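Checklist before submission:
- one chain only
- standard amino acids only
- sequence pasted in full

Submission:
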Amino acid sequence: MYIPVQSRINSYLFFSLTYPKNHLE
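Returned file contents:
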């Protein structure tokens, strides 16, 4: 299934909000 670029960006933003960089570190 092809995922639009904007959709990927939205997912990335949502992921970032759900898992802050501090959590990753």
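Reviewer check: The chain has a mean pLDDT of 78.
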